């Protein structure tokens, strides 16, 4: 639990009291604590003779438990057991899910989605290579055990533009077994995932963004009648005598050509 707190800092609140809570039998106390502390997700650790070394991951919707999975810890190595350099606080991890089992049953699909919600931080639209420092790997084996591994990414020189990547395990390292699950119905799950219209990103036409974050818009206009635009009457915009004489001569030529065409038609 302390290692999970370390991974989730500062988006976590720790409750250290030993309460007699049984989430699967009576989740009322757990729902009260999550509502009191304004938490949408929880991790509950317990141990008993029947189910030793338990950790329960779950999330809340409308002040009630939506999904909940009980994992049994079969093997665990804390972060303090790895004598390596650790990552800093508030580093967003890269989540990797290995194995085809994750998509073969609804329970494993929900567990994968639950782990993503539990360990992801801010959503980002773009990343840079130097910004990826932490990898969390979740592997689902053939006997449905969940293997958790945590690595620090080291970028080494490769003699090319793309660096060579090395992974150093920093912990925690754990093997889990799935004991009990409680997942929401498909309708309730779909309702919980629904986003308000204000949060949906709508694509706007003719708007682009450059590399510096500036917004550029494109406006489509019709044909411009520049001769009919009312402008301020200043001396600099008035026609010169030569231009006025040329306009009068143009009008005379047009009238003369029209009269000649009329005479031709009458003949």
Describe the structure.
The mean pLDDT is 86. The protein has a domain at 1-182: Rossmann fold (3-Layer(aba) Sandwich), CATH 3.40.50. The longest helix has 26 residues, at 241-266. Helices cover 24% and strands 28% of the residues. It has helices spanning 2-8, 28-36, 106-119, 186-193, 241-266; strands at 41-46, 54-61, 64-77, 94-98, 134-140, 145-156, 164-169, 173-182, 207-209, 215-217. The protein starts with a helix and ends with a helix. With 267 residues, the chain is α+β, with helices and mostly antiparallel strands. 12% of the residues are buried.
- Give the distance, in angstroms, between the N- and C-terminal Cα atoms: 108 Å
Rg, Cα atoms, Å: 35 Å
Helix content: 10-25%
Q: What's the overall geometry? A: elongated
How big a fraction of the residues is strand? 25-35%
Order of helices and strands: HHEEEEHEEEEHEEH
Low-pLDDT parts are: none
Broad CATH class of the domain at 1-182: Alpha Beta
CATH architecture of the domain at 1-182: 3-Layer(aba) Sandwich
Question: What's the average pLDDT?
Answer: 86
Number of strands: 10
- The CATH topology assignment of the domain at 1-182 is Rossmann fold
Structural class: alpha+beta
Number of helices: 5
Main sheet characteristics: 8 strands, mixed
Labels describing this entry:
267 residues, alpha+beta, Rossmann fold, eight-stranded mixed β-sheet, two-stranded antiparallel ribbon, 5 helices
SSE blueprint and pairings:
Elements: H1 2-8, H2 28-36, E1 41-46, E2 54-61, E3 64-77, E4 94-98, H3 106-119, E5 134-140, E6 145-156, E7 164-169, E8 173-182, H4 186-193, E9 207-209, E10 215-217, H5 241-266
Parallel strand pairs: 4-5
Antiparallel strand pairs: 1-2, 2-3, 3-8, 5-6, 6-7, 6-8, 9-10
Family: Belongs to the RPF2 family.
Main location: nucleus
Pfam families: Brix
